[in-house]
Amino acid sequence: MSSILDYDLCSSDHISSLVQLTEFYASNNMIKCLPSSINKLVSLHSFDISHNNIEALCKELFSLIQIEVLNVSSNPLKEIPCHVKHLMKLNSLDVSSCHLRHLPSALGECSNLSTLLLNNNSISKLPSQLGQLVHISRLDVDGNKLQYLPYTLSFLSEKLMISVKDNPLLSETDYSKYTKNPLPVPYMLPSLKELTARYIIKMNIPNIDTLPVVLQEMLQKSSSCSECGRPVCEFYRGEMVTVNFSMRGDWLPLYKQLCSPHRPQGCG
Ligand SMILES: [Zn+2]
């Protein structure tokens, strides 16, 4: 094992010579940034930069596609870049105590993740794409601002150990406030505005700030269908349901959205 302690990452470029380094432990220092030469650590499997003063993760970090364990907890990060999706071998990610308010939906593309630690942040909503993490067995979200979880997590409920202590979870008496387009009502088609917004999201069209304001506002409301994963904006059926996560016996509120709310055949 190779390891380095108390290394001045910001002011030194010597790191670029450590091409065979496999494990790098630099926790509990005063590191403020990662150098772009971090991308030279092409053998790195485990990287611990917890308990430092790093405000942003540089994009070069996400070129280290062989990383399996990444601990960036207790840094004032505020966000995880969407580049995280490039870490396809990532098995364990700890971003606890990082001042996070949001998570990127791209996290759902880290298909090897088995442990995701998000404790003690200010996250009010988890992306539904977390339901794509078929290997995840531990999800800790203690000490956040979650009122409910995405319904897609129910697909993982048999093997997922989830910890949600110290969150303002809804009680069943509040569920009705989250019901949208309840059945039965006649089947309706989405508006042209909704269909246009969905198409823009699906095609990943850039420069949305050049679009009409009405479409930009629509795109800001975007989320995903719980069943098929397609984008929705304003037109969907929404309901809060209670799901049992059997490993712990916990009954948790999950928010379910359907893209074709009243279509007899379901999604599509
Ligand atoms: Zn759907």
How is the topology of this model organized?
Layout: E1 23-25, E2 46-48, E3 69-71, E4 92-94, E5 115-117, E6 138-140, E7 149-150, E8 161-163, H1 192-202, H2 213-220, E9 223-224, E10 231-232, E11 237-245, E12 250-258
Parallel strand pairs: 1-2, 2-3, 3-4, 4-5, 5-6, 6-8, 7-12
Antiparallel strand pairs: 9-10, 11-12
- According to DSSP, the number of beta strands is 12
Uncertain regions: pLDDT < 50 for 5+ in a row?
A: 1-6
**What share of the residues does DSSP label as strand, in percent?**
15-25%
Specify the overall morphology: globular
* Biggest pleated sheet: 7 strands, parallel
According to CATH, what is the topology of the largest domain?
A: Leucine-rich repeat, LRR (right-handed beta-alpha superhelix)
How would you classify the quaternary structure? Answer: single chain
Walk me through the structure.
The structure is a single chain. By secondary structure, this protein is mainly beta. The protein has two domains: 14-163, Ribonuclease Inhibitor (Leucine-rich repeat, LRR (right-handed beta-alpha superhelix), Alpha-Beta Horseshoe); 172-258, no CATH class. Helices cover 7% and strands 17% of the residues. It contains two helices and twelve strands; from the N terminus they run E-E-E-E-E-E-E-E-H-H-E-E-E-E. It has a seven-stranded parallel β-sheet with strand order 1-2-3-4-5-6-8, with no helix packed on it. A three-stranded mixed β-sheet has the order 7-12-11, with no helix packed on it. Strand 11 and strand 12 (250-258) form a beta hairpin. Helix 1 crosses helix 2. The longest helix has 11 residues, at 192-202. Zinc ion binds at residues 225, 227-228, 230, 258-259, 267.
